[in-house]
């Protein structure tokens, strides 16, 4: 939005009652929500019933109050362990590393992977000031080096790097492969069925399934 349009929008927003302006401002802070989208969302909420507003407020409150990260893999859960780590049918010796919980969910829809996961909670991105210490890299290395830190105390025999095929994702994968080299564990990565520059969460199930089955060794 250019300066003139931005100034015009700010002037229009200042004409709203203060609670409406504040709601628009807070909604516009959400990723992918611009000022106009925030305005539409605010008026949708305003026109809705009190019950709908209360349900939205309760859902946001419950997410902040009840949701935590799995103590083993950092997936989202309500208890100490997520559903994947609790599932005794999963092969805990094979760990798929992903950037975010949403990538885990996309991979789960394929039904092709029966191991467990490790969520980095991001990717290495020097431009944005994100280094390995901001991620769960050290916990991953601990899982590989110490069976007691892994799901059900099982030793890890393979780590699959499931980063998104972007410049940052590739850089993160190379860093992890190097960090795990001394452990002697087999390190593989998803096959390039996932298009370069694409996002795992937006990739079709069949393509993801092929990428899992066709994974290749690193190093």
Offer a few descriptive terms.
Dna Topoisomerase Vi A Subunit, Chain: A, domain 2; 5-stranded mixed beta sheet; two-stranded antiparallel sheet; alpha/beta; about 220 residues; Helicase, Ruva Protein, domain 3
Produce a short descriptive summary:
43% of the residues lie in helices and 12% in strands. The protein has 9 helices and 7 strands; from the N terminus they run ααααββαβαβαβαβαβ. The protein starts with a helix and ends with a strand.
Structure description:
The protein is of the alpha/beta class. It has helices spanning 3-13, 18-27, 35-47, 50-66, 83-86, 101-108, 137-145, 167-180, 205-213; strands at 68-69, 76-77, 91-98, 115-119, 158-161, 186-189, 216-217. It folds into two domains: 3-66, RecR Domain 1 (Helicase, Ruva Protein, domain 3, Orthogonal Bundle), CATH 1.10.8; 89-217, Dna Topoisomerase Vi A Subunit, Chain: A, domain 2 (3-Layer(aba) Sandwich), CATH 3.40.1360.10. The protein has nine helices and seven strands; from the N terminus they run ααααββαβαβαβαβαβ. The strands form two sheets. Strands 4-3-5-6-7 form a five-stranded mixed β-sheet. A two-stranded antiparallel sheet has the order 1-2. The chain is elongated and about 65 Å long. The relative contact order is 0.10. The model has no long low-confidence stretch (mean pLDDT 88).
Question: What is the radius of gyration computed over CA atoms, rounded to a whole number of angstroms?
Answer: 21 Å
Q: What number of structural domains do the residues give?
A: 2
CATH topological fold name of the largest domain: Dna Topoisomerase Vi A Subunit, Chain: A, domain 2
**Proportion of β residues?**
5-15%
Largest sheet: 5 strands, mixed
What is the subunit arrangement here?
Answer: single chain
Strand line-up in the sheet with most strands: 4-3-5-6-7
Structural class: alpha/beta
Count of DSSP strands: 7
Low-confidence stretches: none
- Report the helical percentage: 40-55%
């Amino acid at each position: 939005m250019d300066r003139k349009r931005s100034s015009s929008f700010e002037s229009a927003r200042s004409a709203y009652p203060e609670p409406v302006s504040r709601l628009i401002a807070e909604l516009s802070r959400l990723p992918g929500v611009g000022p106009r989208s925030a305005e539409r969302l605010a008026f949708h909420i305003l026109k809705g019933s009190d019950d709908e507003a209360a349900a939205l407020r309760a859902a946001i409150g419950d997410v902040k109050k009840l949701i935590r990260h799995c103590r083993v893999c950092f997936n989202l859960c309500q208890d100490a362990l997520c559903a994947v780590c609790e599932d005794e049918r999963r092969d805990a010796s094979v760990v798929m590393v992903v950037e975010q919980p949403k990538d885990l969910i996309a991979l789960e829809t394929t039904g092709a992977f029966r191991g467990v996961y490790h969520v980095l909670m991001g990717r290495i991105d020097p431009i944005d000031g994100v280094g390995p210490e901001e991620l769960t890299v050290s916990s991953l290395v601990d899982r590989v080096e110490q069976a007691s830190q892994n799901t059900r105390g099982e030793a890890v025999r393979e780590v699959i790097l499931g980063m998104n095929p972007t410049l940052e994702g590739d850089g993160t994968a190379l860093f992890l492969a190097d960090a795990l080299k001394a452990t002697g564990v087999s390190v593989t990565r998803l096959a390039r069925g996932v298009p370069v520059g694409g996002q795992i969460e937006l990739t079709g199930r069949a393509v993801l399934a092929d990428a899992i089955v066709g994974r290749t060794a690193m190093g």
